[in-house]
Amino acid sequence: MPPRPRPLSITITPLKIPTVNIGEDLGEILAEAIKRQGQRIANGDVIAVASKVVSIAEARIANLSEVLVSRRANRLAAKWKMRKELAQVVIDEADAILGGVDGFMLTLKDTFLTANAGIDQKNSPSGTVSLWPTNPRDSAKRLRIQLEKKFNRRLGIAIVDSRVTPLRLGTTGLAIGLSGFIPIRDERGRSDLYGRTIRFTQTNVADDLASAAHLLMGETRERIGAVIVKNAQVELREPKALASTASLRREKCLITRNLRKQLW
Fold this sequence. Notes:
With 264 residues, this protein is an alpha+beta fold. The protein is 25% helix and 24% strand. A hairpin with a 2-residue loop joins β4 and β5 (104-109).
């Protein structure tokens, strides 16, 4: 099987957008930013959008002063030195809680292993925390359809959040929702440099692109709410199984299979 062609270069261009308010039309905001910055959209471009701006536009914000705290939240907040209201929101949002360290719970959320179920206080309005979109894949699909109509081009959309990697310091990018392209490049059955058949390797193109976008988006006051990725050589397709093609069942994952079984 011959190797697939790889792009000689990939271009990632930041999109500065104004502060997004609850209920605003994010698709319109992105389209205006693209036009204002004189960017030309082509077939196959991938637009990576920060999950925070999607969450705010979709009113996925929790006011901590309004949170009713349970005994379980009080217990976990004391155990991991968290604000009790934040602990309650994590409990409400997480699919499972596997453990924690001071300030953070290790959770499963929408098939992702992540800290605090993706909840973040950073760059969220005062007194609030932002949650992940209710269904990031649906959010990505709506944005894709809207922007494809605006620019008459076939696009990919990735909704990007930050994540931590086991035993590594700092954050990288994670595609929590995507639409319009295949997230995995399957290398199995191909040959390496020495003619050995590759048995296991699959490349997570979506998370690679998310990490590149995350590098430009930053984590503080950059106001770069989206990034245009050109020449990514992704396969433009929206298969029925797209929601699960980049996910791995817990019992097949090297990390989660070896976590202790007890859930908090």
